[in-house]
Design brief:
This protein is an all-alpha fold. 87% of the residues lie in helices and 0% in strands.
């Protein structure tokens, strides 16, 4: 009986060791599979990160070009507005000068008429007719 008990205890220890060994093997395989999955995920993420970085750089280059173009257009627009403003000021100044000259001509003509003389020239109005 004692021998049977020792044999049974030995068999139980062997079985426990075999079970522990099997658990360790299964855990090791599971760990290896998990590591493969993580390694694959890391590789995929690195590749995606590289794609996103490349896209980011391309987009940044486009943004830089657009910003440069916008600055050029703003500068050109400002220059055109300045030219327009200057042309409008010039037109107002010329219009005021024309009106002043027309008044002066009319005054001089009136003075000639008042003196009893006939002016040699005709007044030309803005429409181009006397």
């Amino acid at each position: 009986m004692k021998a049977n008990k020792v044999t049974a205890e030995s068999a139980e220890r062997v079985a426990e060791q075999a079970a522990a060994s099997e658990r360790a093997r299964v855990e090791s395989e599971a760990f290896s599979r998990a590591k493969e999955i993580y390694d694959h995920a890391i590789t995929e993420l690195r590749e995606e990160l590289e794609r996103v970085r490349n896209q980011y750089e391309r987009t940044q280059e486009q943004l830089d070009k657009i910003s440069e173009k916008l600055m050029t257009e703003r500068t050109l627009s400002r220059e055109v507005r300045d030219q327009l403003d200057q042309a409008q000021r010039d037109m107002r100044a010329m219009s005021a000068r024309i009106e002043q000259m027309e008044r002066l001509i009319a005054q001089l003509r009136q003075q000639i008429l008042t003196a009893g003389l006939q002016p040699d020239e005709h007044i030309v109005h803005r429409g181009g007719s006397p």
